[in-house]
Amino acid sequence: AATKLASAEKLMYFCTDQLGLEQDFEQKQMPDGKLPVDGFLLCVDVSRGMNRNFDEQLKFVSNLYNQLAKTKKPVVVVLTKCDEGVERYIRDAHAFALGKKNLQVVETSARSNVNVDLAFSTLVQLVDKSRGKAKIIPYFEALKQQSQQIAAAKDKYEWLVSRIVKSHHEAWPNVSRKMQPAPEYQDYVYLEGTQKAKKLFLQHVQRLKQEHIERRRKVYLALLPQALDALVPDLDEIDHLSRAKAEKLLEAKPDFLKWFVVLEETPWDATSHVDNVDNERIPFDLLETPAAEQLYEAHLEKLRNERKRAEMRRAFRENLETSPFVTPGKPWEEARSFIMNEDFYLWLEESVYMDIYGKHQKQLIDRAKEDFQELLLEYSELFYELELDAKPSKEKMGVIQEVLGEEQRFKALQKLQAERDALILKHIHFVYHPTKETCPSCAACVDARVEQLLGSRFIRHHRNNPSADSNIDRINLVILGKDGLARELANEIRALCTNDDKYVIEGKMYELALRPIEGNVRLPVNAFQTPTFQPHGCLCLYNSKESLSYVVESIEKSRESTVGRRDGHSAQLPLTLILVNKRGGGDAGGETLQSLIQQGQQIASKLQCVFLDPASAGIGYGRNINEKQIGQVLKGLLDAKRNLNLVVGSTPGLKDASDGADLRVVMCLMCGDPVSADEVLLPILQAQACRPAPGGGAAVL
Question: Domain 38-137 in CATH: superfamily?
C-alpha cells in the first residue's frame, strides 16, 4: 500500500518470458529509480482455487482495501479469471464493492484478453478527472463484443493468408514477413497473438496440401480403369483371382511400368511423388485404398457384363437364324414378339438388337434375291416370246407371276413385291440385252472379272522390248523381317556375292539387288516397290510370334496398297517364309521351335507360299549360310519371275491388242492366278472355242 517506490535502474518487466532472455525483448528501466504511485488495482481471483477458501480471501481483500483507502489514492477492484469464474464469488465481490464509497468493479480475463484495457483506463480516469469516464461493461457482454471483433479480424486475416499463400510448400518466416505491413495481419496479431496467426497459416497450408493430394488422387483414379483395361482385359485371367494375386499378375505384365510406379516409401501421399506432376503413373499402393478397390470390382463387373452382353447378342442372332417367323422383308414390329425375351430386353439396348436384326434381314434378303435369280434362270422359257423392247405387258407379267407363284423362292419375297418385280424386269432386260453392265451378278460377272484380271494382273510381253530379256539377268529381292533380322540376313547374302553384287546361279551370273525392310510397309521408305526397284520375290523371316505377326501384317498391307494398280504385282509376288533361330539358340521368347514351325506352316498355307524351317533350309543365326542354300532359294524365285511373263509360244488368232504379239493366256478365272500351260492343259484349252474379249482386247480361252 506504499505510495512511493524506489527501484533504481531496475528493468521494467512485461511478462515472465523475459526472465533469462532480457536481450530478446524491449528494455525499459524504472525512471530515476523512484516511482510515485497514483492509484491501485485491487485484483480478486474469482475462479475456484485448490485448497483456497474464497471467504477467507475476501477477508484479506477487505483488510487490504482498508490499508489502500488510507492513502487517499483511487482504487479499482479487478475480478480476474472471469472465464473460469464462480457465479457466487463474483456476486460476493460485487457485494463487497457496493459497501464501499465509489468503489468500481471491472470483470476481466487475462487469458481471453477481456476488459484488461478497461481496468487500467478506469483507474486512469479516476486519477485524471479531465479524462472522460470509461463505461464499465460486464464480462460476458464484453466477451461477446470481443468475440465478434476477433471473428471479423480472423476472417480478414484468413482472406489475407489465402491471397498470399498459394502453395503448400510456403514457410511461415517468409510469409509472416510479407504480411507484416498488412492491417489484417496487425489487427489479428494484436487481438490473438502471433502463435494463433501462425496456427491459422499452418492450417491453411495443410488444407492446400490435402487439396493437392485429392487432385492427384482423382487423376490416378481416373487413369486406373484405363490401366486395368490395357493390362487385364480378359475376364478369364482375373475372375478367379484374389486381390493379392491380381496385383501380382499386374506386376508381371510387360506394360506394368507404363501405368504404375512402385514407391520405396508408402503411403504415396506422404512421399515426394505427390508433387511430381509430370509423372502421372499410378502409385501401386493406391490399389490398397477403398476407392481403388471399388474401381477394380467395377472393372470385373464391366467384363462380366460385356461377356453377358456378347452371349446375349450371340443368342439373339441364333434366335433369328432358327426362327421360322423371321422372313425376308418382315418389319421388326411384326417379328418382335416371336424373338424377344426378358434377357434380351435386360442386356441389349434397342439400337444393338435393331442393328443385329437389320444385318440379319439384309442377309436374308440378299440370299432370297440370289435364289429368286436362280429361279428366273430355271424358268427361262417364260421370257422367250417378248417384244423386242423387252417390256412385258400386264398380262405377260401376270402369267409369269402365276407360273412362279407356287415356288417357295417366289413366296420368300412376298413382303418385297416391288423389289421382286424389279428383279423380273431386270432379268428380262438382261435376256434381251446381255452385257456385263446388265448382268445380275454385277461385279462377279465373268466378263467383267476377266477384263479386270487382264488389265491389272498380267505383264504383257513386248516383242520389240530388249529390256525384257536383259531384265531376266537381274534379281530384285525383298527381305522382310523385324528387329534386325532382315538387315543381318542381307549382310550374310552380300558376303556370298562378288564385289560388284553379282551372284552365280547354275553357272550364270546374275545381278542381285537386296532391299531389307523392317518397318511400316505403308511408308514410302519401306515400300516393296519403288520407281527404281521392281521386286521379283520376297524372303519373309521370323523367329517369334511377334515377328511372324509383323510379316503377315506387312504382306497384307502391301497387297492392299497394290489393289487396282495396273503395274502392281505384289499380289502375286513369290514369297518364301523362313524360320530363323535367335542368337544363342534356345526357345524364341519362351516359344518352342515346334510351335513356331506349326505357326509358320499355317501362315504359309494362308499366304500360299513356300515355308522353310531351320532343318530344311539350314538357315539360322549363329552359323554361316552356305552358297548352295541361298542359291536354291534364289533359283526358285528366278523361275517364278520367268513364269510371270506368261509367254508360252505362239497361237494364231490370239492377238494382244496393244502390239499384235501372239499370246496364249492360261489362268484361273476364280482367283486370277496364272496356271502353267503343260501338256495336260493345252490340248483341253485348244479344243475349246474362243471368243474375243469385250472391247476388242486380248482373246481369252
Answer: P-loop containing nucleotide triphosphate hydrolases (3.40.50.300)
Q: Which amino acid is located at 62 in the chain?
A: S
- Give the three-state DSSP class for 18: helix
Packing angle of the helix pair 545-562, 593-607 (nearest 10 deg) = 10
For residue 641, give the 3-state DSSP assignment: helix
**Whether the domain at 38-137 and the domain at 472-561+572-582+590-644 fall into the same CATH topology:** yes
Calpha distance 266→263 (Å, rounded): 7
Strands 474-480 and 104-107: unpaired
Instruction: Identify the CA nearest to 463 among candidates 653, 661, 665.
Output: 661
List b or e across 180-211, with b for residues whose CB sees 16 or more CB atoms inside 10 angstroms.
eeeebbebbbebbeeeebeeebeebbeebbee
pLDDT in tens, 270-320: 888 888 888 889 999 999 899 999 999 999 999 999 999 899 899 988 988
One DSSP character per residue, 357-382 reads: HHHHHHHHHHHHHHHHHHHHHHTGGG
- Whole-model pTM: value is 0.48
Three-state secondary-structure class, residue 652? coil
Q: Residue 233 — pLDDT band, cuts 50, 70, 90?
A: very high
CA distance 427 to 423: 6
What is the rounded CA–CA span in Å between residue 494 and residue 501?
7
- How many residues appear in the chain? 701
Q: SS3 for 521?
A: coil
User: Is the separation of the CB atoms in 623 and 581 below 8 Å?
Assistant: no
* SS3 (DSSP) at 326: coil
Distance (Å, rounded) from C-alpha 498 to C-alpha 504? 9
Instruction: Look up residue 201 and give its three cell numbers.
Output: 497459416
Domain extents in the chain: 38-137, 211-307, 328-440, 472-561+572-582+590-644
Q: Is 516 helix (H, G, I), strand (E, B) or coil?
A: strand
For residue 282, how many C-alpha atoms fall within 13 Å in the half-sphere facing its CB? 25
CA-based end-to-end distance of the chain: 142
Q: What is the mean pLDDT of residues 437-450?
A: 76
Among the listed residues 281, 284, 291, 280, the one whose alpha carbon sits nearest the alpha carbon of residue 265: 284
Could you give the CA distance from residue 361 to residue 490 in angstroms, rounded to a whole number? 54
- List the beta bridge partners of residue 575: 538
- 472-561+572-582+590-644: what CATH class? alpha beta
**pLDDT over threshold 90, residue 622:** no
Alpha carbons 529 and 535: distance in angstroms, whole number: 6
554 — phi, psi (to 5°)?
-65, -40
Q: Burial code of 473-498, b = ≥16 C-beta within 10 A, e = fewer?
A: eebbbbbbbbbebbebbbeebeebbe
Residue 609 · residue 576 · CB < 8 Å: yes
Residue 479 host element (H or E): strand 474-480
Contact 609, 572 (CB under 8 A): no
Q: Which residue has the cell 421360322?
A: 324
How many angstroms from the chain centroid is the CA of residue 197?
46
Among 238, 240, 234, 286, residue whose Cα is nearest residue 259:
286
Nearest to 164 by CA among 200, 195, 196: 200
CB 71 within 8 A of CB 1: yes
Element (H, E) at 420: helix 417-432
Q: Comparing C-alpha atoms, which of 559, 540, 699, 556 is closest to residue 633? A: 540
